[in-house]
Design brief:
With about 400 residues, the protein is mainly α. Helices cover about 55% and strands about 5% of the residues. It has a 3-stranded antiparallel beta sheet. The model has no long low-confidence stretch (mean pLDDT about 95). The structure holds coenzyme A. The site of coenzyme A has 16 residues, from α16.
């Protein structure tokens, strides 16, 4: 194929890189669906477990299917003892995303079987695929919570089978069972972050998966991509930014200064959405719910955030820049007792459902990713032996 006629598009903006049935978004309408189901309906009526099933299998589960999937997830929450030892050797001030990536990358060594998948070339061993989806998805919350405990110098809290995914995660993080409102909010956050078409980390997962790499490395690759502040790392920065602003009265001046300096406002803007991200709307609704549940005692930063959204509407909306999913999620997580640098790992827990759904879809019709490039370097030139090169030091 002659590729010279294809224009280079920075960031591949608007270039279809795959065909998928998993999720759809309309950035002009603010619509996001998973397998055709509106995100707002899933956040309201489904659990994370059910949402993961929908993403991975394409349909709403029957009660029996959901009970079986949920049971498998509960049974697979424990990770091997040696993973805990790996964590003990990591520096306690290292970023949790790096700890998470390291431990997820190691999982394939504890749960081998990759050769079963490659034995038939590109056609995957479906049993291995299903087993690894369960194992990785179930382990994610355990790994994030384990690192939180270990870096504080505490023993990890073993997962419990009698709790839902969201309840168990908060229990392992905070050493207490969450109240039903907190658990429901955590669950909805997991639903909202589970999938988002072909974003950077999902693309990374697809590229890695297309080489038939083991699924834990597919997820590790996606975790690395999610870690950057232009993707999943923004929610942590949102709260630091709200702290820096300090109070609603200071928002307008701060924002003017920020924009004059050509700095981004964290938690705003999206490549696809040109209206407010529908997930940001739902998250704000959850914040209001928590506000009511706690009789107004959520976070003083919420007032700063609302004022920032109001001021930004005047200055950034004409460019199609509105709050994205990261703008309100951090406020919720902080209110649930989660440290700021764990916000992106929680995003990763949830997005693992989407990454693995895409991995499975990719394997069903795989072709290795191998794009081309516009070469801008030298034409072939003669090689100079070391003896003929001039020293770079004077004299
Ligand atoms: N703050 C201030 N201005 C912003 C902005 C933000 N967060 N996001 C976009 N803009 C402005 C750009 O400066 C640009 O202005 P210009 O036309 O005057 O140069 C215009 O809006 C278009 O933005 P662009 O950089 O082309 O958008 P993009 O699609 O390349 O980038 C993001 C999308 C997400 C990388 C970008 O919006 C961003 O950096 N946001 C902050 C980080 C963040 O919250 N990430 C989480 C995403 S879910």
């Amino acid at each position: 194929m002659d590729t010279s006629t294809h224009a280079y598009i920075p960031g591949l903006q608007g270039i279809p890189a795959t065909q998928s049935r998993i999720s759809f978004l309309d950035g002009q309408e603010g619509l996001l669906t998973y397998r055709g189901y509106r995100i707002v309906d899933l956040a309201r009526h489904s659990t994370f477990e059910e949402t993961a099933w929908v993403l991975i299998n394409g349909e709403l589960p029957t009660p029996e299917q959901l009970a079986c999937f949920d049971g498998e997830l509960r049974a697979n929450r424990r990770v091997k003892y040696n993973v805990r030892d790996i964590m003990k050797f990591l520096p306690i001030d290292g970023h949790p995303m790096e700890a998470l990536q390291t431990c997820v990358a190691s999982l394939g060594m504890f749960y081998p079987g990759q050769e079963r998948m490659t034995a038939h070339g590109v056609s995957a061993d479906s049993e291995f695929v299903e087993q690894m989806i369960i194992k990785i998805l179930a382990s994610m919350a355990t790994l994030v919570a384990m690192w939180e405990r270990i870096r504080r110098g505490d023993d990890p809290i073993p997962p419990r089978k009698d709790l839902t995914y969201a309840e168990n995660f908060l229990y392992m993080m905070n050493e207490r069972e969450p109240d039903p409102v907190e658990a429901r909010i955590m669950d909805a956050c997991l639903v909202l972050h589970a999938e988002h078409t072909i974003n950077a980390s999902t693309f990374s997962a697809l590229v890695c998966g297309s080489t038939l790499a083991p699924p834990n490395l597919v997820v590790a690759s996606a975790i690395g991509t999610l870690a950057g502040p232009l993707h999943g790392g923004a929610n942590q920065r949102v709260l630091n930014m709200l702290d820096e602003i300090g109070s609603p009265a200071k928002v307008a001046d701060w924002l003017d200064q920020r924009l004059a300096n050509k700095q981004v406002v964290w938690g705003f803007g999206h490549r696809e959405y040109k209206v407010k991200d529908p997930r940001a709307d739902i998250l704000q609704g959850l914040l209001e719910q928590l506000h009511e549940h706690r009789h107004g005692d959520v976070s003083p930063l919420y007032e700063v955030a609302k004022e920032l959204e109001r001021c930004a509407a005047e200055r950034l909306a004409p460019k199609g820049v509105y709050p994205n999913v990261d703008f309100y999620s951090g406020l919720l997580y902080e209110a649930l007792g989660i440290p700021r640098d764990q916000f992106t790992p929680i995003f990763a827990i949830s997005r693992t459902a989407g990454w693995l759904a895409h991995w499975k879809e990719q394997l069903s019709n795989n072709r290795i990713f191998r794009p081309t490039q516009e070469y801008q370097g030298y034409a072939p030139r003669s090689y100079q032996p070391m003896s003929e090169r001039q020293s770079s030091f004077p004299g």
